[in-house]
Amino acid sequence: MSQIAKQGFWGTVVTYLGVLIGFITTFFVLTRLLRTEDIGLVRVLIDTATLFIGLAQLGTTSSTIRFFPYFKTDDNKHHGFFFYTLLLPLVGFIIFGIAYFLASDSLKNIFAEKSPLVVDYYYIVLPIAFFMLYQTVFETNAATLRHTVFPRFVREVLTRLCLLVAYILYAYKTVNLDGFVWILCLTYAIAALANFCYLIIKEKIYWKPDLEFLSKPLLKQVGSYTLFVLLTALASVVAPTLSSFFLTAQLGLNYTGVFAIATYMAVMVSIPYRSVNAIAQPQLATAIKEQNHTDAQTLLQQVARNLLLAGMSILLIIWINIDLIYLILPNGETYSAARTAVLLLGLSQLVLAAFTIALSALNYSPYYKYSLVYAVLLTIASLWLNNILIPKYEMNGAALANLLAYLLYFGIISLTLYLKTKLNIISKKMLGIILVSILFFALNELLLKLFVLSIQLSAIIRDLILLPLFILIVYKLHLAPELEQTINRYINSKQTKQ
Asked: How far apart are CA 75 and CA 376, in angstroms?
């Protein structure tokens, strides 16, 4: 098994273990024991911290992966490369921390009427963001050295377990809301420390910078790219959090809480992307740097195709069972208001999962500056769409705004990548997967209308009919070579035993 396949497998196992913990948290703690307002508060704090660190990183997540091959040495000192990955985010945190403090009155006024709790916990965002920032820094450093499984474990399992403890302590009044919020902060401190300890144990990291290596041309290249990535953080960080902020400001934390549960369901669609992209991006950066068009093209289409198939399969499972999910979910009648939003958010996550690798390829190419224009476009489109759709369609409007903005953004990026580099993320097999998926979503709706049964029985029947049939058709049409090879090996092993 190749390194990308091996780490991808274990990364996916860890990620789905995190999903199981998230499932338990959502079904048996959040929706049963916490108010929608509490859930909304957590969502806004996390989204605000995420937005903050996206800017405070000063583009180091992407530039670390892009420029590590330039610094890499056989003696593993790497010219003190990892020192800079610690310094730049600290500078960014100080700059944007000051900006966050100075903007406090204006930002508080936005949320004061509908969501006063956000105002009460405005400043707790800073320590949460600091620890989230360095959790990400150490995770990225590990990824450049091809260590992705443990940092994924920290993000998907350890962090979720700590959050679960925090929810339970708060739900049973062991701690008050202030204590709960500080435990939330402590969770990310533990995650950052765990990643740091792993990094220094697994690898001998040299922190002393080699200033002589930093030539003016290299500094200029790194500086311009880092500035560019900072500005394009508008796309990767601002746009996804806008819906949460708009809902909180215009409708209140109760709506944000319901929308957060819908988001938790939809995010499962992009779970495979989290582990696969962390492994594929460094290899893609190397292939593009070495101008190996064949390897870059193969990797690009392979990652996009497999993530599309995996994400579409998960979304199909969710949508077939959506009514059953809300039936089982504690207080499901409250959260079912976001039923349609789950599908729209799931489609958004599908687009994100399948096409983010195209954005990475463009960023690693000489034409990376185009992404800046598209980042601004995505942010403007998200602001405009959220502003016009949320007042009219509430949570469904927020979800639709996400989907439309992502379709526009990744569509333009994929087209630019092809026109400038001849790297084409779209393959005939991808189009085939999309067409087959549309057919099966339509069949699901048809079966719902043909057979009027109980929610439980209806879901079971449609699961038994549609899911095996979906896999069979994908297999027979040869749309997923990797899946086909896995099935063939299984069939051959069975025949050999007989």
From this structure: 41
Q: Of 114, 108, 129, which is closest to residue 50 (Cα–Cα)?
A: 129
d(CA 189, CA 183): 10
**Four-CA torsion 227, 228, 233, 239, nearest 10 degrees:** 140
Q: What is the pLDDT of residue 241?
A: 84
Residue type for 50, please? T
Region of 480 on the Ramachandran plot (φ > 0 left; ψ -120 to 50 alpha; else beta): beta
Output the pLDDT for position 209. Answer: 67
pTM: predicted TM-score of the whole model, two decimal places: 0.83
Q: Is the dihedral of CA 98, 104, 105, 107 positive or negative?
A: positive
pLDDT tens per residue, range 424-442: 999 999 999 999 999 999 9
Q: Give the residue carrying structure tokens 């990824």.
A: 143
Provide the pLDDT confidence category of residue 130 given band limits of 50, 70 and 90: very high
Please report the pLDDT score of residue 159 as a whole number. 95
Element (H, E) at 370: helix 370-421
Residue 168 has pLDDT above 60, yes or no: yes
DSSP string, 318-354: HHHTHHHHHHHSTTHHHHGGGHHHHHHHHHHHHHHHH
- Contact in structure between 36 and 334 (CB atoms under 8 Å): yes
Span 212-248, pLDDT tens digits: 666 777 777 777 777 777 777 666 677 778 889 999 9
474-483: burial string, b at 16+ Cβ within 10 Å, e else: beeeebbeeb
> What does the alpha-carbon distance between residue 348 and residue 449 come to, in Å, rounded to a whole number?
26
Helix (H) or strand (E) holding 131: helix 125-144
Look at residue 4 and give its three-state secondary structure: helix
Nearest to 229 by CA among 280, 221, 402: 221
Distance of CA 78 to the CA centre of its chain: 29
pLDDT tens-digit map of 307-354: 999 999 999 999 999 999 999 999 999 999 999 999 999 999 999 999
7: Cβ contacts below 8 Å, ≥ 6 apart: 146, 148, 149, 275, 279
pLDDT recorded at residue 122: 94
Dihedral of the alpha carbons of 118, 122, 126, 131, in degrees to the nearest 10: -30
Instruction: Give exposure, 370-395, as e/b (b: 16+ Cβ within 10 Å).
Output: bbbebbebbbebbbebbeebbeeebb
The four Cα atoms 290, 292, 296, 297 give a dihedral, to 10 degrees, of: 160
Per DSSP, the residues of 457-496 read HHHHHHHHHHHHHHHHHHHHTT--HHHHHHHHHHHHHHHH
What's residue 1's pLDDT? 45
